[in-house]
Specification:
The structure holds 2 protein chains of 2 kinds. Chain A is mainly alpha-helical. Helices cover 42% and strands 10% of the residues of chain A. In chain A, strand 10 and strand 11 form a beta hairpin. Chain B is an alpha/beta fold. Classes of the chains: A mainly alpha, B alpha/beta.
């Protein structure tokens, strides 16, 4: 009983903190809480954090799939759904089902093959943490923000501005639909069949599942006292207890400890192997290992494909422009690096205070679907902000210091004079230049007293301030062209420092 | 908030909701900027810190009581446009803002609201400018201005290009507002001072930029609700790469301040002062002449009663 309660408490702590970290647009939680994202299996693997992966593997080899029940937010979410279903339909019971080994292994193989073929989107779709991240970002977060806005409206009636209005907008229709579909499938499966997702489609579940067959601590049935009443099988959300034969398929057991309490004969224990329980019947290890290794071999053979160089054209005005390369976020090094590491959990999208990150459609090719791309519809990248690089759990966005960010050139400015209001209307503007942190866009003398933008792409960082604010309609006069590989921006020359001695007011 | 305050507010709101609201009410409530309380049209101060200079200037104008009456709702509108620290002079000096807030409350103001429609992320601007903390400590309410929901459309009858604009509700609902810009150069309209600071009370700045920026700046200043006082912070002046600036090489420690109810005059004075640091002919700052044409004030400051103070 104590084990089960410990599991529930730890799971709820992880789940609540991680979920709120995604929801938290106001920055109430310290940034360090992103650690809960960084210790997730796939992000840690893609980040090359071998220490974290090693600890998770060791944890599984000792305690079984505790990762699945206490660390994985999607798994915990499913447990919550199952728990709620039990309140409403207590009669609906789980039953033992046979392992769908070929499905598990084929999905895992497909994930590996597609990843090495550069189609990262398959990993992104099935990685439980990232799937959960998208659900929170695109579905729960807008609800949370709407609730905040209602509070803001009520409180501002009384002159209290502790709550403030926040802009809710659609980041990406495709990501929203995918999040919605994930939510529907996961919730349905959890309500009906408990942890079916984890034991069929989840690649992490498959890897940790087969690892856990080797674990020291396991749920074990004492055959000598078992009366095969089947209570445990009905409780098991992983459907992995065959009560007739008093066996447990450890590869599917998520170490939730529910069965221990369900057994009236105290025949179920969690612990080390004992001589008395010699008849414990595990999944034939050899066979599954062979299949697992087979899957690995197939994936290793897959040849990494070259990146699909997708060119997107953006319709613009008097002189339309084409962005040949997408602008990848700060710290992403290149689109290729992003494709190798990003699982589209959308933590950066949720956290960006300037709302400049958007899930990609086909900007990076099909394989990069949903990966973050810079978009200047709602804002531009704050010069001194490194938040996205700080919270990225997969190292797709490498952490940048503010100084390093100042020199990171994500893209280069392009000015199209024929669209500029100074040229078309011969009136003052300067909006682009005033937003430019490096003066890569500078106003220079034009006709009469007018000034017109002049650009120096070498000192441009590609923040998009100019593009965001350019008032020209229907087509902007200034935009940022993405760098396929991020470059170092040249340092700008400082102005001459002046010490002025003013004797009078000048009037 | 105490429960009692909450209930009182709820009761008052209920009561107030029985009064029929209409556009006409706004006109009735509007304050035409008074002639400056003292005998001067414009006060220029040099050589002190922002707080000392402001105290001298406001004393010459008859004290804050000449502008803010007991029980009034006041808005102090600084420039908080950029995610920059005070030393980089992109935003109004926080100590000055705090001092003005304090004096308004001392003069009996019911509440003092501080806000700006920022260019960079509003929370970063409010925090890193030092203004949020300083104004709060002085007793002001900090209001957001980053969402369209905070703005209401009003007509600008005298506007040439700008006929209507969405203006922040704090301004529209105030009895008095005080305009507190910082003196900076600007790549487009050349200077950003008191008139240009009005772009922080409107929602759609893009319209301004598309439709003759300089004219729109003058037009928005013809809004019925005009600032009772314009306090130009020229303690640190951004001479180049304004209005954002890059490094402190763009900043000059000029230690000056200009205060007047005449917005064109105060901007003219500040531009002439700026011209001593970097060349800035008055006729290049065309919104000044356009403002004068709309009878918002005068560029002919020689004809005004100007008090010059050197500390």
């Amino acid at each position: 009983m104590k084990l089960r309660i410990l599991r529930i408490v730890l799971a709820l702590v992880t789940f609540t903190i991680l979920t709120f970290f995604f929801l938290d647009f106001a920055g109430l939680f310290p940034q360090q809480y992103f650690t809960l994202a960084a210790i997730q299996f796939v992000p840690a693997l893609l980040a090359g954090s071998f220490v974290i992966v090693g600890v998770l593997v060791a944890l599984t080899l000792v305690f079984g799939r505790v990762y699945c029940s206490m660390i994985c937010p999607l798994g915990i979410y499913m447990d919550v759904v199952t728990w709620i279903r039990k309140r409403f339909k207590p009669r609906m019971k789980q039953t033992y089902s046979k392992e769908k080994r070929w499905l598990r292994l084929s999905v895992l193989a497909a994930v590996l093959v597609s990843y090495f073929a550069g189609v990262t989107v398959v990993v992104s779709l099935l990685d439980p943490y990232s799937a959960f991240g998208r659900m929170v970002t695109h579905l729960f977060r807008p609800v949370y923000m709407a609730g905040n806005n209602v509070l803001a409206d009520i409180f501002s009636q009384f002159g209290i501005y502790t709550f403030y209005h926040t802009d809710i907008f659609l980041h990406s229709l495709v990501s929203l639909l995918i999040a919605l579909a994930t939510l529907a499938v996961v919730s349905f499966l959890a309500a009906r069949h408990g942890r079916t997702w984890c034991n069929t489609l989840c690649p992490v579940g498959t890897v940790l599942g087969y690892l856990s067959t080797l674990s020291l601590f396991k749920i074990r049935i004492d055959e000598s006292t078992c009366i095969s009443c089947g209570k445990c099988a009905k409780t098991c959300k992983a459907s992995c207890i065959d009560s007739k034969h008093s066996t447990i398929d450890t590869s599917r057991c998520v170490a939730c400890f529910d069965c221990i309490d369900s057994c009236s004969e105290h025949s179920i224990t969690y612990g080390l192997k004992r001589k008395k329980l010699a008849s414990q019947n595990d999944v034939p290890v050899d066979e599954s290992k062979r299949q697992f290794m087979g899957a690995l071999a197939v994936s290793a053979l897959a040849v990494p494909s070259t990146l699909l160089a997708q060119t997107i054209s953006i319709p613009t005005g008097r002189v339309p422009f084409k962005r040949s390369y997408p602008i990848s976020p700060p710290g992403s090094i290149s689109a290729d690096h992003l494709l190798d590491h990003c699982t589209s959990c959308h933590l950066c999208v949720a956290k960006c205070p300037c709302q400049v990150l958007k899930p990609a459609l086909l900007e990076y090719g099909v394989g990069g679907l949903m990966m973050p791309v810079m978009n200047f519809d709602h804002g531009f990248c704050n010069f001194d902000c490194t938040l996205c690089t700080d919270v990225c759990p997969t190292d797709a966005l490498k952490p940048l210091t503010v100084q390093a960010k100042h020199k990171t050139q994500m893209g280069r400015v392009v000015f199209i004079m024929h669209n500029c209001v100074v040229f078309t209307d011969e009136t003052s503007c300067g909006a682009c230049s005033e937003h430019c942190p490096t003066q890569a866009v500078k106003m220079v003398p034009y006709k009469g007293m007018l000034t017109i933008p002049s650009v120096n792409p070498d000192i441009c960082v590609g923040c998009g301030g100019c593009e965001y604010v350019c008032p020209a309609v229907p087509f902007k006069a200034i935009h940022v062209e993405g760098n396929p590989v991020q470059l170092e921006a040249q340092a700008f020359k400082d102005e001459e420092k002046k010490e002025v001695q003013l004797d009078g007011f000048g009037f | 908030m105490k429960r009692r305050d909450f209930l009182r507010a709820a009761a008052l709101t209920g009561l107030a909701s029985t009064i029929k609201l209409s556009g006409g009410m706004d006109i009735l409530a509007q304050k035409v900027p008074q002639k400056t309380g003292g005998s001067y049209d414009l006060v220029a101060v040099m050589g002190g810190d922002p707080v000392t200079m402001f105290r001298r200037a406001i004393a010459e104008l008859g004290g804050m009581g000449a502008f803010v009456k007991k029980g009034q709702k006041v808005v102090v509108k600084p420039n908080i446009g950029w995610d920059k620290v005070p030393a980089l002079a992109a935003n109004t000096n926080p100590d000055l803002v705090a001092e003005i807030v304090k004096q308004c409350l001392k003069a009996g103001a019911k509440e003092v609201v501080v806000f700006d429609h920022t260019c960079d992320d509003w929370q970063k601007c409010y925090t890193n400018s030092g203004i949020q903390q300083a104004a709060k400590a002085a007793g002001a309410k900090i209001m957001p201005a980053h969402e369209e929901a905070y703005y209401r459309e009003v007509s600008i009858p005298k506007g040439v290009k700008l006929k209507t604009a969405k203006v922040h509700q704090a301004i529209l609902d105030s009895d008095v507002w005080i305009n507190v810009p910082i003196l900076k150069n600007h790549g487009g309209p050349k200077m950003t001072i008191a008139m240009k600071n009005h772009m922080g009370i409107v929602w759609d700045r893009g319209y301004f930029h598309r439709n003759d920026l300089q004219q729109c700046i003058a037009d928005i200043c013809s809004l019925d609700k005009r600032p009772a006082l314009n306090v130009v912070d020229a303690y640190r002046v951004m001479k180049t790469n304004g209005p954002r600036g890059r490094t402190d090489a763009d900043v000059v420690l000029a230690k000056a301040m200009f205060v007047s109810s005449d917005i064109v005059a105060v901007d003219t004075a500040a531009t002439k002062f700026f011209n001593q640091i970097e060349s800035m002919p008055l006729d290049s700052v065309t919104h000044l002449a356009k403002g004068q044409a709309l009878k918002l004030g005068t560029m002919d400051i020689d004809k005004l009663n100007v008090k010059r103070i050197s500390l």
